[in-house]
Amino acid sequence: MIKKETLIYLIIFGIITSCVNYQIEINSIEFNKNVNKNRNCKLDYPNLENNPNLKKLRSKYKIDNLVNSAKTDLEKAIILLNWTNNRWKHNGKNKPSNDDALTILEEAESGKKFRCVEYGIVLSETLNSIGIPARVIGLKTKNVETAKSGAGHVATEAYISEINKWIFLDPQMNYIPYLNETPLNAVEYQKAISTDRNKIELINSKGKLNKRKTKSITKWIYKYLYYFDTSLNQEKGKQCQGKNRLMLVPKNAKKPKIFQIKYKIDNCLYTNNLNDFYIKP
Q: What pTM was computed for the model?
């Protein structure tokens, strides 16, 4: 039988350990918010009429039926977030034979498991197939150049017309972050964790995640919310100024040219302007 003093010690130790484990090293980052009148490259999204792969994706997987009960684009996005999350179990090492949603889903049906990258691709293309502008978003840590591993994560952002803003969706982890009942984009998510993390709610089709899981995910994701990048054009192969990606870099931060010591980052245009990255589609 545990003595009263021992029980009290264990309870106190558990509370202290829990608090320590939730400590986050805050990255105070800022971006330029002025309107960029000199923007030469813009973010483009698929033309559904000219994209047979998106038409096939929409038809083969009966996407319209999946979202038939939804009344808003946000509700559709939440349904497809959950649907994507349930297509396979995560495996951080496997790659598909081709990086498009149809290939990924077909190979997942045969039992293959994939990375966060593939979750982001499938959700983005699925949303685009029903006319919701969406993009795969790469997240990178502050030490992206020197970390041997674990310097990146991939998710999705979608533009939700009825609330006139971009929102962040993590199909691998199956949630959308909210603050004060408003869904957040990736940069807003970073700021919310830095200043109001106890008020953040993570929501999916089943409702709010419990506090323990919310804290765990919040602590895990935060280190990745430093550099943000996406394709300049969701139609593969198109470039601007010889580059095919746009990276949002905090003011006064280094522009990373290496990923995890040995992989070159040479395909990005860099900006610290939020209006470049979050332009309305």
A: 0.90
